[in-house]
C-alpha cells in the first residue's frame, strides 16, 4: 500500500522554548486539530484513509522545523484517489491545503516527501490536519449565516454528529451483511468442494483400475 | 446596563467559540509501518483523556504465527512511557494525560513484512468546576454539553475501531475464499497427475524393453 522507504525513526526532542512558543501560538489563535508526522530525509511518507463516496475531505499541512525557524525545509505533497487520479499536487512548499468531495469509495492516499532544499536537511516534521465528513464542516460560518450562537450552535453540532454516527452505523451494517454473504458462500463451497474431492479421488482410482485391468488383459497376464 | 449585557454576550460567544475549537481533537488515518512509525499529537490541558484505537489491517501472511503483531508505545513529553502494548493486532487505549505537551504514539514492527496500521486518536477535554469558578462567563451547561460531546466522541471512536476491524476481517475472508478455490483445484490436478504417473510407471514395469519380462 504505502511506498515509504522509511529509515529507522529517531526521537525528536523539542527544546522547551519551542513548547513555550507553541503554547503562546495556541493561546492566541484557535488551535487546529492536527497530528505531526516525521518526513524522512529520503523516501516518501504516506498516510491513507478508506473513505466512502460523497464525503467532504479538508486537509491542511505545514512544516514545523525547530532548527531553522526562518528557513523551514520545503516538502512536496501529492494526493491520489483510489483509481489513481491526482487530486492535489504541490512542490516545494512549507504549507498548503486541499479540499475535495470524494466521488468514489476507496483508499485515498496523501504522500509527502522532502522538496529540493539548498542545505541538506535531516527528517522534517510535518503537521497534518486531516478532516472528513462531519469534522470538515465550518461551524463558524454556519453560526454567522444562521445567526445562532452559544448553546444552540453546540447542540446543532451535536445533532449533526449524531447524524453522522447513524450513517456510519448503517454503513457498518451493510458491510457486515456483505461479509456474511461471502462467509456463507465460502462455507457452502467448502462442503461442495470436499464432496467433489472425494468424488474425484474415487473416479481417478477406478479409472486407473479399469485401465490397468484392460492393459494386463491385453498383455495376457491375467 | 444594556452595553454590559451585550459585552457579556459577546464574551460568552467568543469563549464558546474558543472552547468549541479546543474541545475534541481527533485524527483517523492509516499508515504503513516498516520498522517504526511515530505520530505526534498535542495535548493542551493536563488531565485530558486521550483515547483511541488502532488495528493492523494489511495482513498478507501465510501462517498466523509468522507475525504475532506490532508493538504500540505512547511516550509523554517528559520522556516516560505512558502506555504500551506488545504483540497485538489491534487494540483500544485510553489514558489520562499526566501533563500537557506533545505526546508521541509509536508503532513498532519487529518483523520485516510491512504492515498497514489504521489508527484513531482523540484528545477530549471537559471543563471542570475549577475552571467554572475562575471564569464567571462559563455556563455550567457548557460542562454538560462537553460531557455529552465526549460521550458521542467515544461512540465515534468505537465505530472507527469496528470499521477497521471489519476491513481486516474482510481481507481474511477474501483470502480464505481465494485459498479454498486455488488449493482445491490444485489438489484435483495433482491427484490426477499422481495417478497418471502411477499408471505410466506400472506400464513401464511390464514393458517388453525390460530385460526380465517378469516382475
Automatic annotation (TrEMBL), chain A:
Q: What is this protein called?
A: GOLD domain-containing protein
**Phylogenetic placement of the source organism:** Eukaryota, Viridiplantae, Streptophyta, Embryophyta, Tracheophyta
From TrEMBL, chain B:
Provide the membrane topology annotation: Single-pass membrane protein; Single-pass type I membrane protein
Entry's InterPro entries?
Emp24-like, GOLD_dom, GOLD_dom_sf
PROSITE patterns xref list: GOLD (PS50866)
Which residues, if any, are the signal sequence? 1-28
GO BP: any one term: endoplasmic reticulum to Golgi vesicle-mediated transport
Domain (GOLD): give its ranges.
Answer: 36-123
What is the annotated localization of this protein?
Answer: Endomembrane system; Membrane
Residues that span the membrane, as ranges? 180-202
Q: Name one Pfam family in it.
A: EMP24_GP25L
Its primary localisation, in coarse terms, equals membrane
Q: Which UniProt keywords apply?
A: Coiled coil, Membrane, Signal, Transmembrane, Transmembrane helix
Would you name any one GO CC term? Golgi apparatus
Q: Which family does the record assign? A: Belongs to the EMP24/GP25L family.
Q: Can you say what this protein is called?
A: GOLD domain-containing protein
Amino acid at each position: 500500500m504505502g511506498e515509504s522507504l522509511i529509515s529507522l525513526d529517531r526521537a525528536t526532542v523539542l527544546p522547551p522554548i519551542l513548547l513555550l512558543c507553541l503554547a503562546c501560538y495556541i493561546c492566541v489563535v484557535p488551535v487546529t486539530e492536527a497530528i505531526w508526522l516525521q518526513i524522512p530525509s529520503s523516501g516518501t511518507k504516506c498516510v491513507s484513509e478508506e473513505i466512502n463516496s460523497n464525503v467532504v475531505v479538508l486537509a491542511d499541512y505545514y512544516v514545523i522545523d525547530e532548527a531553522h525557524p526562518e528557513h523551514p525545509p520545503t516538502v512536496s505533497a501529492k494526493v491520489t484517489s483510489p483509481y489513481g487520479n491526482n487530486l492535489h499536487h504541490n512542490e516545494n512548499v512549507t504549507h498548503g491545503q486541499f479540499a475535495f468531495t470524494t466521488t468514489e469509495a476507496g483508499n485515498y492516499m496523501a504522500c509527502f516527501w522532502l522538496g529540493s532544499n539548498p542545505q541538506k536537511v535531516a527528517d522534517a516534521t510535518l503537521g497534518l490536519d486531516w478532516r472528513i465528513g462531519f469534522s470538515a464542516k465550518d461551524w463558524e460560518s454556519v453560526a454567522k449565516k444562521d445567526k445562532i450562537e452559544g448553546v444552540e450552535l453546540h447542540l446543532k453540532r451535536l445533532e449533526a454528529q449524531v447524524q453522522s454516527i447513524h450513517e456510519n452505523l448503517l454503513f457498518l451494517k451493510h458491510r457486515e451483511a456483505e461479509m456474511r454473504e461471502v462467509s456463507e458462500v465460502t462455507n457452502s463451497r467448502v462442503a461442495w468442494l470436499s464432496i467433489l474431492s472425494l468424488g474425484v479421488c474415487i473416479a481417478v482410482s477406478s479409472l486407473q483400475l479399469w485401465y490397468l485391468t484392460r492393459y494386463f488383459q491385453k498383455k495376457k497376464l491375467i | 446596563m444594556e452595553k454590559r449585557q451585550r459585552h457579556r454576550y459577546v464574551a460568552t460567544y467568543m469563549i464558546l467559540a474558543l472552547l468549541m475549537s479546543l474541545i475534541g481533537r481527533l485524527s483517523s488515518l492509516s499508515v504503513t509501518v516498516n520498522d517504526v512509525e511515530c505520530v505526534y499529537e498535542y495535548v493542551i490541558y493536563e488531565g485530558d483523556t486521550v483515547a483511541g484505537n488502532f488495528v493492523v489491517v494489511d495482513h498478507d501472511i501465510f501462517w498466523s504465527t509468522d507475525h504475532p503483531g506490532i508493538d504500540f508505545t505512547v511516550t509523554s513529553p517528559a520522556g516516560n512511557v505512558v502506555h504500551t502494548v506488545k504483540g497485538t493486532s489491534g487494540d483500544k487505549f485510553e489514558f489520562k494525560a499526566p501533563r500537557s505537551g506533545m505526546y508521541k504514539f509509536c508503532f513498532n514492527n519487529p518483523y520485516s513484512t510491512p504492515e498497514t496500521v489504521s489508527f484513531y486518536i482523540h484528545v477530549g477535554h471537559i471543563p471542570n468546576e475549577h475552571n467554572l469558578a475562575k471564569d464567571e462567563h462559563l455556563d455550567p451547561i457548557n460542562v454538560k454539553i462537553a460531557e455529552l460531546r465526549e460521550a458521542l466522541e467515544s461512540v465515534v471512536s468505537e465505530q472507527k475501531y469496528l470499521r477497521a476491524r471489519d476491513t481486516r476481517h474482510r481481507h481474511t475472508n477474501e483470502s480464505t475464499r481465494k485459498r479454498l478455490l486455488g488449493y482445491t483445484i490444485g489438489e484435483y490436478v495433482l491427484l490426477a497427475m499422481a495417478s497418471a504417473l502411477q499408471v505410466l510407471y506400472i506400464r513401464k514395469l511390464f514393458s517388453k524393453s525390460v530385460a526380465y519380462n517378469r516382475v
